[in-house]
Amino acid sequence: MEFDTGAPIWGQLVTEFSRRIVTGEWAAGSRIPGVRELASELGVNPNTVQRALAELERRGLCRSERTAGRFVTSDEERIDAIRAELAHVAADDFIRRARGLGMRPAQALHLIEERWTHGDHTPADGARGGHDDV
Amino acid sequence: MATTPLPMAPEEATMTSEHALVSVRGLTVRYGTRTALDDLDLELPAGRIIGLLGENGCGKSTLLKTLAGLYADYTGEVRVGGHAPGPRSKALVSYLPDRSSLPDHVRVRYCLDLFSDMFADFDTAKAREMIAGFGLDESMRLKEMSKGMREKVQVSLAMARRARVFLLDEPISGVDPAARDGILDRILGNLEPGSSLLVATHLVHDLETTLDSVVIMRHGKVLLEGEVDDLRAEHGSSLDQIFRKVYRS
C-alpha cells in the first residue's frame, strides 16, 4: 500500500484496516494478524499499527482478547455502519470533484450510471479513496 | 496530495508514556574551540524507533558516541537505562559506528567469533541468519566486499545483540536505494519490542514511514523533536518536507 507521507500514517491505516473489514478480506469474527506482522507487511512502525488498531477497537470494529489476540467484530450491523461511513467519504470525494468541474447533480448521476460498468474499477481503489493525485 | 481519512478522535493521539530509556541533560562536548554538542537535552522512551536528522557536523555522531560510552570528555548528565556511561550502560547499548572498526583482512566468520567473545548478549545464530538472509557468505573476507555488503555485515552484527538501545550511525548510506528497504526491514524485524533504536541518517525519505519520532539537530542543539505522525498533522507535510523547512528557516 502507498502512503501519503504528508498526512498521519495511523489515520491512513485506520482507513485501510476498515476497508479490509468491510470487504471481508478480514472476515467478521476472524483473528487479525499481529502488530509486528502487519508492520512488516505494510513497511510501517509497529507503534503506528498499534495506534490504528486501538482506534479500530474504539470504533467497535475489533476487540482484544488478552491472550488470543485481536478479532474482527462479529457485529454485522457495526460493519455495515462503517461500510456506509466509508462510502459517504468516497461519495463526498466524488461530489467535490464533480462540483469542481462544474457538473450538475443530474449530470453526475448520469455519469456514474454510464461509467459503472465501464473501465477497470477494482473495488479496493474505490473503498480506499481520498487521494487527490490526479 | 490530500487524504480524506475517517474522522479521528484527537485524544487518541497520546501513547502510553514509558519511563525514559535514555536521558540527557545539559550535554556539552567541545573539540578544541569548536562546540559539537551545546547544552543538549533529550529524553528517549523505550520501545521506539527514533530518527536523528541533521546536516553533517551538527553533532549527531558525537551524540551517538557519547551515548555509546565511547566519549568521556563531556559535561552534563547522561543516563542509559539509568546508568551513567560505563561498563553497565555499555552492556545495554549496541552501537554501529559510521566507519567500520573491523579489520579489513578478516572473514565474516571471524567477526562472529569476535562479537561472541566481546558481548555476552550476542546471539550468534541470529547474526548468521541475518547474514545468510542478506545473501552473504561467512567465508568472505571484508576486503573482498563492496561498501554495501560490509554495511550488511555490520548491521547484522549490531542487531544480533540483545541490547536495550541500538545506536546506528548512517547504517544504510553506502547501500544502493533499491536494497535499502530490505536492510531496514531486517533492522526493524530484529528489534525487540521493549528496545529502542536511535538512527542517525540523512536519508529522511527512506525512513519516512518507519519512525515513531524524530530529533532534528543543528549546531549541537535540538532544533525540532516530536512524534512523526503528530508533526505531519501539524505541518500538513511529510517529514522530508518538514526537515527541509526547519533547516531553511
TrEMBL record, chain A:
Keyword match Glycoprotein: no
SMART domains reported in the protein's UniProt record: HTH_GNTR
SUPFAM superfamilies: Winged helix' DNA-binding domain
Residues in HTH gntR-type domain copies: 7-75
UniProt-listed CDD domains: WHTH_GntR
Entry GO MF terms: DNA binding
Any Pfam family hit: GntR
PROSITE patterns reported for this sequence: HTH_GNTR
Database matches in Gene3D superfamilies: Winged helix-like DNA-binding domain superfamily/Winged helix DNA-binding domain
Keywords: DNA-binding, Transcription, Transcription regulation
PANTHER family per UniProt: GNTR-FAMILY TRANSCRIPTIONAL REGULATOR (PTHR38445:SF6), HTH-TYPE TRANSCRIPTIONAL REPRESSOR YTRA (PTHR38445)
Protein's name in the database: DNA-binding transcriptional regulator YhcF (GntR family)
Naturally occurring in which organism (per UniProt): Isoptericola halotolerans
From TrEMBL, chain B:
Superkingdom of origin: Bacteria
Coiled-coil spans in chain: none
PROSITE patterns hit by this protein: ABC_TRANSPORTER_2 (PS50893)
Lineage of origin: Bacteria, Bacillati, Actinomycetota, Actinomycetes, Micrococcales
CDD domains reported for this sequence: ABC_DR_subfamily_A
Organism: Isoptericola halotolerans
ABC transporter domain: residues covered: 22-244
InterPro entries reported for this sequence: AAA+_ATPase (IPR003593), ABC_transporter-like_ATP-bd (IPR003439), ABC_Transporter_VariousFunc (IPR051782), P-loop_NTPase (IPR027417)
Transmembrane segments: none
GO MF terms, alphabetically ordered: ATP binding
Signal peptide: none
Protein name listed in UniProt: ABC-2 type transport system ATP-binding protein
Record's keyword terms, sorted: ATP-binding, Nucleotide-binding, Transport
